Every structure is written in structure tokens, then in C-alpha cells.
Here is the input.
Amino acid sequence: QVQLVESGGGLVQPGGSLRLSCAASGSILGINVMGWYRQAPGKQRELVATIHSGGTTNYAESVKGRFTISRDNAKNTMYLQMNSLQPEDTAVYYCNLRQRRIVTNYEYWGQGAQVTVSS
Here is the structure.
């Protein structure tokens, strides 16, 4: 079992910055993919960015150039630096971890962190 705990959400003005953190604990394998997803009111959950344990990253077009995903494998912690935030970035942001043990895929979610961009 894996536990994911997000922190760092809050209220910020348009154009501002926030950094989210996701601390993972439990049975974490050396090879995995961690990611951030978000869900705005009335909308489906969508991908924000992912990062492989080897460092490869992937971003949604809407956040490219503004958000940066990173991780510290020694601390089992992932980060999302969000710059130039806009009202449309308002959502609950969820941490995700996917890993494969032999032939079984496992996926875990955090409880979510609210990010509100408003003047």
C-alpha cells in the first residue's frame, strides 16, 4: 500500500505562484510514474503533468512554460511549481503514483489540495 499526502495549496492572485508538494510513503517501487491531476468544479479530472522515476516529464499543453514538475527520489517527494497562475487554474490538485509489480498495475491517489486563483 502507498500513501500520498499533498500540501501547499491555497489562494493566490492572478499572475502569482504556488508550489505543491506530494509526500509518498509505503511500498514504493524504484520504478514508478508520479503525476499531478486537477479537477475544476463541474469538469472531469485532467492531467497536469507526470514525471517518471528516471526523470522524463510530460505536461498538458495548458500548463507548458508555466508549471514545472520535479521529484526527489531519496525523499519520495514530488513537487509542482506553478507560475503565472490564472483563474482557469483553479481546481483541486491530486497527486498520483502508478507502479507495476510483476504483472499487476497499481495506482494511488492523494486526498487533493485546493488551489484558488482569484483577485
In short: The chain has a mean pLDDT of 96. The radius of gyration is 14 Å. DSSP finds no helices and eleven strands in the chain.
